[in-house]
Here is the input.
Amino acid sequence: MSALTGKIAVVTGGGSGIGLAIAERFAREGAQVVLVGRRKSRLDDAAARIGHGAYGVPTDVGNDDEVKRLFGGLVRVDVLVTCAGGAVFGPVEELPPQAWRDLFAGRFFGQLSACHFAVPKMPPGSVILLCSGIAARAGLVNYAGGSALCGAVNAMGRALAVELAPKGIRVNVLSPGLIGDTAIESNLTPEMLQSFLTDTLNKIPMKRPGQPSDMADAALFLATCQYANGMVLDIDGGWTAI
Here is the structure.
């Protein structure tokens, strides 16, 4: 019997990148995977690629009504993984504050909303995996709001781990560093993105980006290690060790 046989796993942002890699890994371990994202065509393609009964539910995680409808249609949630969201870069004196509010709507409040509606469907032994980022510790230039967001998710994860432990629900946070092949949406031009990647690689001791499969390895560990709770797990090639 595989590690997640018979479990229902909901993965937001499951149509591509980190979310898709986690969904694939969980499906191979026996889970019935529910893929969540805004683009139906992307979810359909991902579900066909994964197989094992995976299916998609188009949902904007920044819309509470849509998130409520998503979880209202599920009989049970054993694993919740919240990976949806993008990135916004810009000098604090130039980037409109609304850009940060929009980022928080999906990447912070979207994760909080998913927890709000999922927890009543989660039996003892369930697990929640939030997703932040090493910007909470690394201090990226032109990413003040995003760094604050990552720190907020880390704090939320630790608080929920304490709050939900009496219900038998574990909560941990995945904190990715530079991960390739993610198709994450941002406001950087191709030239700006390449400059960012080159500068970032110079800061990573392993001198290469991670892959979504590395995040899937970490997610499976946190989903199955029954004594892992309240953790923020940096998967960053040693970036934050410097």
Observations:
- Residues 144-164 form the longest helix (21 residues).
- The mean pLDDT is 94.
- The chain has one domain: 8-236.
- The domain at 8-236 is CATH 3.40.50.720 (Rossmann fold).
